[in-house]
Amino acid sequence: MTQPAVRAAAVIPARYASTRFPGKPLADLTGKAMILHVLERAQACATVGRIIVATDDERIRRVVADAGFEARMTREDHPNGTSRIAEVAESLSEELIVNIQGDEPQIEPDLVDRTVRALASHPTAPMATLVSPFAPGEDPANPNIVKCVRGVDGRALYFSRSLIPFDRDRGPGAAPPMKHVGLYVYRRAFLRTFVALPPTPLERTESLEQLRVLEHGHTIVCAEGEAHFTGIDTPEQYAAFVTRKLGSG
Hints:
Layout: E1 8-14, H1 34-43, E2 48-55, H2 58-66, E3 70-73, H3 81-89, E4 96-99, H4 109-120, E5 127-133, E6 147-150, E7 156-160, E8 178-187, H5 188-196, H6 201-206, H7 210-215, E9 220-224, H8 235-248
Parallel strand pairs: 1-2, 1-4, 2-3, 5-9
Antiparallel strand pairs: 4-8, 5-8, 6-7, 6-8
Helix pairs in contact: 3-5
């Protein structure tokens, strides 16, 4: 069956300051700034019709603009990337807004498209995200890997750093643990609501911002796909990316 046409805007928050890796978006040991690798991956998404880098740093804006992409300067006082995206989204006409992180140069376009289409197919849901099966060798009990459990209709029921669900009887047909991938798609109107929501007890307990949405009674629908990409948080992770990129030609 042919998928209905969907046109979303991707907004990529990118800040220069980073405790673990200052200047990360402009790291260019591949011969190209990392933010440009991210933009090229976003360009390959079938559901994305517009791409905007949201930044508070003129150096990032200049590199993006010089490469022919769109960049917007934003306020410096945003507490997180979602808030920065919400500022840019206020002036956009697209209903669906994709949050692609500026440190994900290996993000898989098919997974972005799946997540956009998941939200488009649930017109009453304000937000969508992505879940993935665990890869061989990944430990579902690792608290650094967030897990998600879903309802039969694909709604997220809960996110946790603990291993969920707990397979009490370890019998056939048990629901396998699913890894949460931090890819989000929002309805533009909901972004204003989201950033205004006060923090919640479960969010503070698990240190997971998406729980704020559930605790306030909003729906998150989940797309599913096998995710292989990871974000780059440290110089060591970036060095590994450079090695893979140059090695693949």
